[in-house]
Amino acid sequence: MSTSTTPTSSDYAIARNWTIGSLAVGLLLALVVGIAIGRRMNAQLRSVSETLRGVAEGDLTRRAEVHGRDELGRMAVAVNQANASIGRTVETLSTAASTLGTSSGQLTGVTSRIADSARAASERANVVAGDAGTVSHNVQTVAAGSAEMGASIREIAQNANDAARVASQAVGVAESTNRTVSKLGDSSIEIGNVVKVITSIAEQTNLLALNATIEAARAGAAGKGFAVVASEVKDLAQETARATEDISRRVEAIQSDTANAVEAIGEISRIIARINEHQLTIASAVEEQTATTSEMSRSVGDAAHGAANIANNIAGVAEATQTTTATLAEVDRTVAELSRLATDLQQAVGSFKV
Asked: How far apart are the C-alpha atoms of 319 and 154, rounded to whole Å?
């Protein structure tokens, strides 16, 4: 009887059971490993999900747990890094928003003060511009008055020079008249001398007539005709004496009047000379005043021109100040908008928890 090597049914059963057992063990191990891996992945995903949910809710303090270096682990690390970066950005935005809000408030106050100062400066500039215009008008009026005064002073100077020239001519005429009157005095003296001679002759003639009358009386009838002639000569001599006496009185009066006239003319000459000196002094002073007035007119003209320029410049300043005020109003509106944006940004950033 030979030995058979053909597997029996029991061997098949054992092998089958072994295989089934091995498969069961493998499936069990795979199930255990899969469950473990699934739990770890689920925990990883849950941690990442919670972190992302916190980001969505504004909580940036959450961090995902890292359970390995696989894709899920790297994803958790990336989420944590992104969360931290967002947190730093939010902190920066919060600080910037706070600073912007503070700066906006300060800028609002500054622009408000600048606007007040600009308005006050504009009002003052307008007032000063009006005053400068008035000053310019007054200075121009003074300049016109100075020009008229200069013309009047030049006319006065001309009149003073004319008066000085007339006074000088009057001095010459007075001196000539004085010489003429002096000559008249000399002539009256000579006439007086002649009158004295005539008086002497008349006296002698009167004496001769008296002697002739006496001699005619002695001669009697023969000297009667001679007595008549002697009487007529005597009468003529007496009449001549009376006439010469009258002439003498008149000549003395002429001499007295001539002396008074000479003295008066001399006084007039001295007065006219003083007038001439005063006229020359006045002419010199008026000439100096003319130069001073001309210089003053030029200075006043320059001042009028400068005042007009000042008025124009101040008007420009007032206009620029008004423009600045309008610009500051626009800046105020911009600052208000920035303040509103800063408030909105602070509110938006405030919803995050860092």
From this structure: 45
pTM of this structure: 0.41
Residue 92 within any structural domain of the chain:
no
pLDDT cut 90: percent of the chain above it: 0
Q: What Cα–Cα distance (Å) separates residue 160 from each residue in 65, 135, 271, 351?
A: 119, 35, 17, 100
**What is the DSSP code string of 104-123?**
HHHHHHHHHHHHHHHHHHHH
The answer for 353, left when phi > 0, alpha when psi is -120 to 50, beta otherwise, is: beta
In a domain, 58, yes or no: no
CA 162 – CA 334 distance, rounded (Å): 79
At residue 175, the pLDDT reads: 73
CA proximity to 266, closest of 171, 196, 341: 171
Helix (H, G, I), strand (E, B) or coil at 5: coil
What span, in angstroms and rounded, lies between the C-alpha atoms of 317 and 321?
6
* 293 CB-contact burial (10 Å; exposed 0-12 / middle 13-18 / buried 19+): buried
Is 115 among the domain residues?
yes
DSSP string, 324-345: HHHHHHHHHHHHHHHHHHHHHH
CATH code of residue 343: 1.10.287.950
The answer to whether 113 touches 331, Cβ cutoff 8 Å, is no
**Residue 120 belongs to a domain:** yes
Cβ-based neighbours of 228, under 8 Å, separated by 6 or more:
none
pLDDT for 42-75, tens place per residue?
776 777 777 777 777 777 677 777 766 777 778 7
Cα 193 from Cα 206, distance rounded (Å): 20
DSSP state at residue 64: P
Dmax over CA atoms of the chain, in Å, equals 275
User: Range of 161's domain?
Assistant: 101-350
Work out how many domains the chain is built from and give that number.
1
Say if residues 318 and 124 touch (Cβ distance below 8 Å): no
Q: 33 phi and psi, to 5 degrees?
A: -60, -45
